[in-house]
């Protein structure tokens, strides 16, 4: 199943969104009690697709967006990750995924998505890759309220992340440094397509209640655009674009 691909004139920047869609193909039955997946954070990163689209449009940059729900297959996991095809998520059982043919889902959904990103990077090596995600302010299975508005994640390569975190905090935005998740544990897509090639990257997490309506989406897309300009300028000034 092909991802959503937007061509762009400025291929020095690449925008991606692993959890852009809540779509479940008709021939897959997840066995969920509710089929209202558009508002369920376990199914889709609420608001992330629209932010990613707007950011790509603002820079005339290429964008590659997932077209299948993370409940069908989580494209932001390694192929051998135990939660690649989840059987439970934040307290919700997903009985339809028990015993499924994971190799078939990898061929159908995972390989086309990551193949498209790999082809883009190989053909037009970007100076920066930006991945847009959103997170829920509180998990159903936790009493902890997450205090961050935005999080910036990274694994070993924190070149772009350091500039982004400093800029966001300078704007008075409560910014997580490898929060609400650690990129040292959850960074599969960017480990593969950015870090492995020496390309600076930003893994951005925005709290989903801030981008659940058009006004919030436009506001945070603008903030992301400003942040990316700052990061690109800072990388260029320190001689740290893709190596």
Automatic annotation (TrEMBL):
<protein>
    <submittedName>
        <fullName>N-formylglutamate amidohydrolase</fullName>
    </submittedName>
</protein>
<keyword id="KW-0378">Hydrolase</keyword>
<dbReference type="Pfam" id="PF05013">
    <property type="entry name" value="FGase"/>
</dbReference>
<dbReference type="InterPro" id="IPR011227">
    <property type="entry name" value="UCP029730"/>
</dbReference>
<dbReference type="InterPro" id="IPR007709">
    <property type="entry name" value="N-FG_amidohydro"/>
</dbReference>
<dbReference type="GO" id="GO:0016787">
    <property type="term" value="F:hydrolase activity"/>
</dbReference>
């Amino acid at each position: 199943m092909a991802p959503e691909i937007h061509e762009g004139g400025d291929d020095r920047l690449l925008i991606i969104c692993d959890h852009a869609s809540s779509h479940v193909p008709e021939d897959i039955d997840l066995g969920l009690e509710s089929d209202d997946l558009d508002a369920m954070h376990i199914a889709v990163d609420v608001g992330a697709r629209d932010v990613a689209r707007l950011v790509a449009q603002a820079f005339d940059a290429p964008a590659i967006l997932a077209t299948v729900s993370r409940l069908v297959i989580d494209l932001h996991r390694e192929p051998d990750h135990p939660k690649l095809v989840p059987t439970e998520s934040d307290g919700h059982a997903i009985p339809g995924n028990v015993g499924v043919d994971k190799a078939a889902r990898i061929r159908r959904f995972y390989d086309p998505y990551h193949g498209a990103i790999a082809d883009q990077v190989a053909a037009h090596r970007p100076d920066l890759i930006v991945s847009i995600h959103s997170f829920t302010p509180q998990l159903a299975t936790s009493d902890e309220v997450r205090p961050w508005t935005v999080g910036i994640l990274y694994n070993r390569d924190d070149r772009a992340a350091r500039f982004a975190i400093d800029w966001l905090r300078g704007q008075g935005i409560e910014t997580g440094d490898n929060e609400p998740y650690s990129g040292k544990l959850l960074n599969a897509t960017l480990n593969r397509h950015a870090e492995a090639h020496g390309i600076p990257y930003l893994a951005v997490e925005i709290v989903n209640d801030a981008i659940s309506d058009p006004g919030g989406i436009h506001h945070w897309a603008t903030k992301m655009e400003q942040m990316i300009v700052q990061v690109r300028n800072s990388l260029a000034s320190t001689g740290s674009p893709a190596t």
